[in-house]
Amino acid sequence: MERKIIITADGSSTIHLPEWGEQYHSKHGAIQEAKHVFIKSGLSLFSNSKIAILEIGFGTGLNSFITFLEAPKMNLKINYVGVEAYPVEPEELKKLNYVSQLKATKFSTVFTKMHQQEWEVKNEISTNFSLTKRQQFFNEITDENKFNLIYFDAFGASVQPELWTVSIFELMYNALKKEGVLVTYSAKGSVRRAMQTVGFTVERLPGPPGKREMLRATK
After folding, report:
1. What are the pLDDT tens digits along the chain (219 aa)?
2. Domains in the chain: boundaries
3. pTM strictly above 0.90
């Protein structure tokens, strides 16, 4: 499948898949979306604590890198697990401009190391942040009562509906600790109903630029 690096509305880059008409992040702003959906609506609920995060769709590493940058500001100690079935190619990563757009040039080696580190191995990135990348399909996740927060950042239901089903959200529900939270950019009614079916309490929140709403689910 053809893949192109494009620049989104806020100046940050993403990977576009023309055949699907889909991209890894919002064309209205990759960084803006990540900060709104995953940081403002998810991570900010856990300031001054020690938490475990599961990311569904590690992809370009943008969500992970922003979370690393935010951890010391929020006095968080984060154990981050990113799941990805199809890792981004090294040549694509070189073309992504997240480090410069986030004004985080002093951490450019961190972004690189996040992608170069071995899979299935926990790496202490800093005193506030550890990262484990797992190369697996989302339906293979078997964690139970382990995470405080899930970033659900799979490709959209219009192109991969199998990733937004009751069976997938049941795995997410099981992976979360009690009162754990899942946040996603999606606001589809079918997604909300699937979440509710497995036991989540679901809220509709204002969405990032380009989207009216998003969803936050609590166990």
Report:
1. 899 999 999 999 999 999 999 999 999 999 999 999 999 999 999 988 999 999 999 999 999 999 999 999 999 999 999 999 999 999 999 999 999 999 999 999 999 999 999 999 999 999 999 999 999 999 999 999 999 999 999 999 989 999 999 999 999 999 999 999 999 999 999 999 999 999 999 999 999 999 999 999 999
2. 29-218
3. yes
* CB neighbour list of residue 99: distance below 8 Å, 6 or more residues apart: 65, 105, 107, 108, 111
The CATH topology of domain 29-218 is Rossmann fold (3.40.50)
Q: Cα(73)–Cα(196) distance, rounded to whole angstroms?
A: 33
Q: Are 144 and 172 in contact (CB under 8 A)?
A: no
Dist. CA 54–CA 28, nearest whole Å: 25
Q: Tokens 């992608």 belong to which residue?
A: 115
